[in-house]
Design goal:
alpha+beta; Rieske Iron-sulfur Protein; 2 domains; 3-stranded antiparallel beta sheet; 4 helices; elongated
Length: 182
């Protein structure tokens, strides 16, 4: 059988060169995918990051007037069991001149529980006020000593350079004594 100038046999059959070219291209593609897989797989979140995507908090041991701090996604989250006075003060402050206007009722799902990301919205410091011995600023909530931001009992900015209220993370009540953050 004679071969033509295009490398194919005169009867339209693929030559040995064509078959080898297809096989080599296929092998190269499989090899490239095999070599690239570790890079692609390294972009997936690790198990420890996935574990931090949400966290459950037991509210039962937190007494009225007490606050705890839990970690979520590498950030502190303040969980405060507010007193009736703190709730009343937060509701009364709804009418105050707030830099970042937000009603207390929009920041909580149950009035007695306030859940906030404990990071100052000015430069990312952690405000004081979680412990009974720490100063809570002029409005009874939290105080960021780095630049003097004062937050009220609803975590709203009242005085200082912080531009926004303390963030309220996504959370749900699993029952009366447990929440899931995230």
């Amino acid at each position: 059988m004679a071969t033509t100038a295009d490398g194919k046999g005169g009867h339209g059959h693929a030559s040995r060169r064509d078959i080898l070219m297809v096989a080599a291209t296929g092998a190269a593609a499989v090899g490239a995918a095999y070599a690239a897989w570790p890079l692609i797989n390294s972009m997936n979140p690790s198990a420890d990051v996935l574990a931090l995507a949400s966290t459950e908090v037991d509210l039962a041991p937190i007494q009225e007037g007490q606050s705890i701090t839990v970690q979520w996604r590498g950030k502190p989250v303040f969980v405060r069991h507010r007193t009736k006075d703190e709730i009343a003060k937060a509701a009364a402050d709804d009418k105050a001149g707030l830099p970042d206007v937000q009603a207390d009722a929009a920041r909580v799902k149950k009035a007695e529980w306030l859940i906030l990301v404990g990071v100052c919205t000015h430069l990312g410091c952690i405000p004081l006020g979680q412990k009974a011995t720490e100063g809570r600023g002029d409005f009874g909530g939290w105080f960021c000593p780095c630049h003097g931001s004062h937050y009220d009992t609803s975590g709203r900015i009242r005085k200082g350079p912080a531009p926004r209220n303390l963030e309220v993370p996504q959370y749900t009540f699993l029952d009366d004594k447990r929440i899931r953050i995230g």
